[in-house]
Write a structure and sequence with these properties.
Number of helices: 8
Strand content: 5-15%
CATH class of the largest domain: Alpha Beta
Pfam families: Choline_kinase
GO biological process, one term: phosphatidylethanolamine biosynthetic process
CATH topology of the largest domain: Phosphorylase Kinase, domain 1
Number of strands: 8
GO molecular function: choline kinase activity; ethanolamine kinase activity
Order of helices and strands: EHEHEEEHEEEHHHHH
Family: Belongs to the choline/ethanolamine kinase family.
Structural class: alpha+beta
CATH superfamily of the largest domain: Phosphorylase Kinase, domain 1
InterPro entries: Kinase-like_dom_sf
């Protein structure tokens, strides 16, 4: 079971009734990984479109230090783009000159479209807009995350299976912005589109990536989820009182071992 999640997208403004032939001929079917291995922590003001401070409450009601503010986003975007892209980005005198807007579709990463101000043109061939990704809580979950994430991202880009990287940092990166939209549920019900998704997924499964070939990810993932559930139930008993009353007979350990036994019986190959 691979640990790298992909999402599929159609070009901006595409009709959802495009045929498989239309999409392939136009080169307009993208597989991107703007949604990798995470959960959506982004909170935005619905009226203004501006990002609101994202805070995680602890069990005693206090705000944690995991806060992403507009100032933080601007500082990172300004510094990273100047350091890693150069060109016209170096001519910016202030971080406030950047055009920044939130991008939906992430899962635990904070995603933003960062653009040069109107009227500025590239000095060479540098991009005028990029995707800014600030890692969320998932980056703190394992020491291997940053290494594996960066290596996989770079290799997929080199093989033309993902966006081009422009700069990588311990708490995020800047990458090529692909003008596209995520597939909607009604798109996924169309056999011609799902056929393309299956073909792309097969391409990923066929890759030989420098990752662990032992079937340990599934076990580690489930064990982590069980631990999170147990910790949350213990720390937030009042919040989860209703859940505890509804499901007093949950035996997660037994189900965990049954799932592992089922997985072993399937004897599936380990793929990316």
């Amino acid at each position: 079971i691979g640990t790298f999640h992909t999402s599929c997208a159609l070009p901006e403004g595409s009709a959802t009734d495009m045929t498989e032939k239309d999409i392939l001929n136009n080169g307009s079917f993208h597989v991107n990984h703007h949604n990798e291995d995470s959960r959506d922590n982004n909170v935005y003001d619905d009226e203004t479109g501006n990002d609101v401070d994202t805070r995680i409450e602890t069990n005693n009601g206090q705000l944690s230090k995991d806060v992403i503010t507009d100032d933080i986003v601007r500082r990172k975007a300004f510094r990273w783009c100047q350091d890693s892209i150069g060109g016209a980005w170096l001519d910016l005198q202030s971080e406030n000159k950047l055009k920044i807007s939130p991008v939906g579709g992430g899962m635990s990463n904070y995603l933003y479209l960062v653009s040069l101000p109107d009227g500025m043109t590239p000095v060479r061939s540098e991009p005028t807009e990029v995707l800014l990704r600030i890692y969320g809580q998932i980056s703190k979950s394992t020491l291997d995350f940053l290494v594996h994430n960066s290596v996989v991202f770079a290799l997929l880009a080199e093989r033309k299976l993902g966006p081009k990287p422009y700069g990588m940092y311990h708490d995020g990166r800047i990458e090529e912005f692909i003008q596209a939209r995520p597939l909607l549920p009604e798109d996924l019900r169309k056999p011609e589109i799902m056929g393309m998704v299956a073909e792309k997924l097969a391409q990923f499964h066929a890759l030989d990536m420098p990752l662990c070939k032992k079937p340990r990810w599934f076990k580690s993932l489930l064990r982590g989820w069980i631990k999170d559930i147990q910790n949350n139930l213990e720390l937030n008993k009042s919040v989860f009182a209703t859940l505890l009353k509804m499901a007093p007979s949950f035996d997660l350990e037994t189900e965990f071992h049954e799932l592992l036994a089922d997985a072993r019986r399937l004897n599936c190959p380990i793929v990316f």
